[in-house]
Write a structure and sequence with these properties.
This protein is α/β, with parallel strands linked by helices and about 140 residues long. Helices cover about 30% and strands about 30% of the residues. It has a 5-stranded parallel sheet, sandwiched between helices. The protein has a two-stranded antiparallel ribbon with strand order 3-4. The longest helix has 15 residues. It starts with a helix and ends with a strand.
């Protein structure tokens, strides 16, 4: 992330992978997923949602969908969502986030990581119908 050329290269690679998928929202997993997730959402012309792990917020979380002058502010059945994080290890956090996004009614969801630690078999946390991509496998 500190190297500007590498950062731009990662954003460019991710954009090329997802530019034709119709992504309407990007969900970044805290905290490093916020970095590329937000940049990628802007590049794709999509909205950005920050997903936090349990215990990171100061109080109980309650969610309510509310109407705004131009629509609602949650994931819905028209959304194609890209879930992004920096590292695929065991896959537990992302798998839970994927299930949450699908429960919210997303039409389709893709999963992406920058790095995958293959020896930890994190892909096994996902069913075969989930498209999981990484930029680098170690």
């Amino acid at each position: 992330f500190k190297n500007a050329e590498c950062l731009q290269g990662m954003i460019d690679e991710l954009y090329e992978m997802y530019k034709d998928k119709g992504i309407t929202k990007v969900v970044g997993i805290e905290s490093r997923g916020f970095i590329l997730g937000g940049a990628l959402a802007a590049r794709l012309g999509a909205g950005f949602i920050m997903a936090r792990k349990p215990g990171k917020l100061p109080a109980e979380v309650v969610e309510e969908t509310y109407a705004k002058e131009y629509g609602t502010d949650t994931i819905n059945e028209n959304d194609i969502v890209l879930l992004h994080d920096d590292l695929l290890a065991t896959g537990g956090t992302m798998a839970a986030t994927y299930r949450l996004v699908k429960r919210c009614g997303a039409k389709q969801a893709f999963v992406n990581f920058v790095i995958e630690l293959k020896g930890l078999n994190g892909r096994k946390a996902f069913t075969d119908d989930v498209e999981v991509t990484t930029l680098l496998q170690l």
